[in-house]
Here is the input.
Amino acid sequence: MKNRIRKLLIGVFALLLALPLPVAKVFAEVPYKTYMVDGYGRILETQTAYTPVQAITRIGEVSFETPRDLTISKEGLLYIADSSKKVILVSDKEGNLIQTIGEGVLVSPTGVSVTKDNTIYVADQGAQKIFVFNKKGKLIKEYGRPDSPIYGEKQSFKPTKITVNNGGNMYVICEGNTNGIVQISPSNGGSFLGYFGTNYTFLNPLQMIQRIILNDAQRAKLLGNIPSTPTNFCIDDNGLIYTVTQGNKNYTLKKLNIAGTNLLGEDDYYADLPVAVTTGNYDNVFVADNDGYVYEYNSEGELLFVFGGRDDGRYRIGLCSKVEAIAVDEEDNIYLLDSDKRQIHIFRPTEFTDNLHNALYLYSKGRYTKSKEPLTEVLTMNSLFDYANKAMGRAYLQEENYEEALRYARLSKDYDGYSDAFWEIRNLWLQENLVTAFLLLVGIFVGIKILRVIQRKYRVFQPVLSKIQQVGQIKLVTQVRYGTYFMKHPIDGCYGVRREGKNSYLCANLLLSAFVIIWIINKYYIGFLFRGVVEGRYNLVSDIAGVLIVFFSIVICNYLVVTINEGEGSFRQVYCGFAYCFVPFLLLKPFVIIISNVITYNEQFIIKFLNLFIVAWMLVLLFVMIKEINNYSVLQTIKIILLTLFTLLIMALVVFIIYMLFTQVINFVVTLIREVVYRFE
Here is the structure.
């Protein structure tokens, strides 16, 4: 009986083993976060754009020693320049060795470039030459230092990076050569064509002042303001050259045409320490940072993604120690060469990125309607991805669906797209309603004339006018109305404030309150094109507190200064005088807010002019008020204004010091309480 049971159990167990088991999918956690930039310039986390899938640590049985550059041919072969091994290693994408190039020829290769016909160009910093090999690895040409006086008689030739255009002209970055990229033609054994893409220098205000006030001998002792040498570069299929330069402020990435003109503008989101650049398959650009971050941009230099990072010592795939090169294959996989870890990290795009790339490609080819389908997929995954909203808006704009274009432009904070769509919507509205609007204005004008005639003959509105006149005679109303006289006749207006009592704290506080209200309305409800705050977010308490703190600080500092400088104005007069200076803002700013909601970028000069006019008027009133209230001369008034500004600076410094001390005391008390609680427990 026991043997039968044992056999039955063995049979059941064997049957269970024979059954197919469900396969468990194992996903490696991505060791970094992916970020994007929204329309307000904020760095936000988004879906993973690329996942690390593999790391190549050796080519065949050959390990890396000092890999310095990497490129991928059209056939998908990897070419790695290893300066210590003095060779170019060629492999497939799995890391299998195909061939070794340059044995016995190369000294210290630091740059490699492969043309469409598989000709290999190598920049050899140690040999101070450029070597050219055919696809079988045979040396066919070599180029040394250009023999041209234009190159510079004392200028050395230490090529570090190289790229070649379709015509065979070589572009070379040389160590220590600040004149720009060296252009060499293959004709006549290597003709020097000149320098290309020279970086510009920047002077800060202190350096400008030094160069103005110092003599030649003193200026000679200053550190020279020498342009930075490009760090790395690449060339796309259209012959455009992309360069990256460390320490070049907001121009670290450049896109240069054949004339050397930069087609990209200044940007705050270019990599700070770029070491390599390459182009993708959709007119996109990839920049690798020294710390292992990868930046992806579209063709116009707008940031799409930032991902990657520095390795924390755990040697995880996707995190680098020191990036040397970046390359992209025909399947959009990214290859990062890490010289410290001596490996190549491979990243694969996610579905989210594939949809975005597909949309980029369709849009660049003018297929706007087709591009909306992948854009919709992107927005389904992340509705806050502003670049997709922007591209969707531009697609609708091309289809002349201006309402939808306006909506997506507003979502993505695409001010140019919003302006273009609003221009078209406004134009259509004017075409449909211009006659009606004109007739309405004529009707209003005629109606006012008729009412005036009726009033003169029959005095129908006299009771209402009498009530209005009675209200106008109230003291507070009279004082508020006096502000209009003050802003048109500031000298006489100051005399009224000082001698005739045309002021009160209540009136000044009322004007200040109106200023705060209009200031807040201007901040949150000015036209979309001129709004600098996040929609839907209000910080009313801090806004009100900020305006009041600034106003009272200025008034108090000015009163303290005029008091010790024989000023004749009382605090009440000074306070009310400052309040009356707000009147141009109170009267004109509401019109600016209204106008800003119905104009486009083409008419933005109107807003700029009106704002400048308001500020200038207020400053003139302020100057006259300080002068007349305190009975100063013009020079004395200028002196008082400068002293007031200096006093404000000192006050701000004192407040900051007190704040820091108070913060330290609070932190000390909190730490002490925690320590006591810990000891007690």
About this structure: Residues 452 and 458 are 10 Å apart (CA to CA). The longest helix spans residues 634-680.
